[in-house]
């Protein structure tokens, strides 16, 4: 996905043909959002694929890809970035966003400062139980 975003915002030379555009076209084809050739030219079919990727209809495709990749990486991952852990869908990942000692400290602070879970935000918003 990062490659797609990089290609979307990469400046194209005057001729319009770049390696980034070709990478974008290849990624769009993999998502079945572009039926044209991978030629490095940001033409009408590439633009149509970009619009499809950016539109609401692509949310399910994007969610499916993220879920599939997360599932493949989960067994070998050692943790999560809190901003990328998809905590609404997977609240159990919150603990893995911290080192064990740090998670214990977060739990201690929650217990002492917010025992009723009144503060807005993570982890209270997820109803993660206090240990």
Task: Please characterize this protein's 3D structure.
The chain has about 130 residues and is mainly alpha-helical. The protein has two domains: about 1-65, no CATH class; about 80-125, no CATH class. Helix content is about 45%, strand content about 0%. Helix 1 crosses helix 2 (about 20-30). The longest helix has 15 residues, at about 60-75. The chain starts with a helix and ends in an 18-residue tail after the last helix. The mean pLDDT is about 80.
Summarize the structure.
This protein has 131 residues and is an all-alpha fold.
Structural class given helices, strands, pairing? mainly alpha
Oligomeric status: single chain
Helix content: 40-55%
| Biggest pleated-sheet summary | none
Q: Please tally the helical runs, counting DSSP H or I stretches of 4 or more residues.
A: 5
Task: Give the ordered list of helices and strands.
Answer: HHHHH
On the 0-100 scale, what is the average pLDDT? 78
Shape descriptor: elongated
**Rg computed from alpha carbons, rounded to a whole number of angstroms:** 20 Å
Total domain modules: 2
**What are the low-pLDDT stretches, counting only 5+ consecutive residues below 50?**
none
Share of residues in strands? under 5%
Distance between the termini: 36 Å
| Total strands | 0
